[in-house]
Specification:
The protein has 252 residues and is α+β, with helices and mostly antiparallel strands. It has two domains: 114 residues, TATA-Binding Protein; 126 residues, no CATH class. It is 25% helix and 39% strand. The strands form two sheets. Strands 2-5-6-7-1-8-11-10-9 form a nine-stranded antiparallel β-sheet, covered by helices on one side. Strands 3-4 form a two-stranded antiparallel ribbon. Strand 5 and strand 6 form a beta hairpin. Helix 1 crosses helix 2. The radius of gyration is 20 Å and the shape is globular. The relative contact order is 0.20.
């Protein structure tokens, strides 16, 4: 893909006991600090759970441990929490590079805390294109219908479209459109992206965005295998790439 602004991989896993993850954080830090020497400031998540009963809604609170580590330039980061693993980057160069990093970190995590099952896998590519001095985005977007349709000769002032596609058990969500003086990333990504130092302040000017979110939610947990997870991520990546090749003009 043409240098996406941001890439995220998420793997939803069977719950690791909090005490196990807490006890293994130092071991993981030691195993990975050569490549990821910066430790994230946040070491726990505060979660609220709601349970609706005949007597009303019961609210319970839980504090769960997490470990996040970044490379020296904060271009790559990963996060492990009891029910999920994430790896993210603002310096994507190739899928082969991403896969190698993912395989190394996930293998060490599995050796340390023993991941038993997984039930969700997703890969997300966020692409941004500046209008600059152009009158439209035809210089970079091949499928203008994914931005904003013309209507009654009115001036276009922005759009935010959601398109959903299905391929077997896999789903591709495409969030696309045009924004003016808006943040680089959607709000749902900023909690993670702050580990990379991505500025939440609005980008000045007019930008088109093509946010490709390919994911698979399995009907039931599947026994964890590094090879099967990597194969699933690669298959999702191919779906996202196929869409990208049709929507976005490719640079040489």
């Amino acid at each position: 893909m043409n240098n996406p602004l941001y890439v995220l991989v998420k793997i939803g896993i069977a719950q690791i006991p909090n005490k196990i993850l807490e006890s293994k954080r130092d071991d993981l830090h030691e195993a990975l600090r050569q490549d990821y020497p910066i430790i994230g400031a946040v070491r726990e998540l505060h979660q609220q759970m709601f349970n609706i009963t005949p007597n009303g809604t019961e609210v319970s609170k839980d504090i769960v441990p997490l470990l996040s580590m970044m490379d020296v330039d904060k271009e790559w980061a990963f996060r492990i929490q009891p029910d999920a693993f994430f790896i993210q980057t603002r310096a994507y160069s190739s899928y082969e590079d991403l896969q190698a990093r993912l395989e190394k970190v996930l293998s060490l995590v599995n050796e340390s805390v023993k991941v038993t099952h997984y039930q969700f896998v997703g890969i997300r590519y966020v692409n941004k294109y500046s209008l600059g001095n152009m009158v439209d985005f035809s210089h970079c977007i091949a499928r203008q219908d994914f931005l904003q349709p013309n209507l009654a000769g009115l001036s276009m002032a922005g759009s935010n479209l959601l398109s959903v596609y299905v391929d077997g058990e896999n789903t591709l969500n495409i969030n696309s459109g045009v924004t003016v003086n808006n943040a680089a990333l959607n709000g749902d990504l900023m909690d993670l992206a702050q580990d990379l130092g991505i500025d939440p302040k609005p980008l000045d000017g007019v930008y088109a965005h093509v946010d490709l979110d390919a994911h698979c939610s399995l009907k039931k947990p599947v026994v964890f295998s590094l090879d099967s997870v990597l194969d699933k991520i690669n298959s999702l990546r191919r779906i996202a790439k196929k869409a990208h090749l049709e929507i976005v003009k490719q640079t040489t």
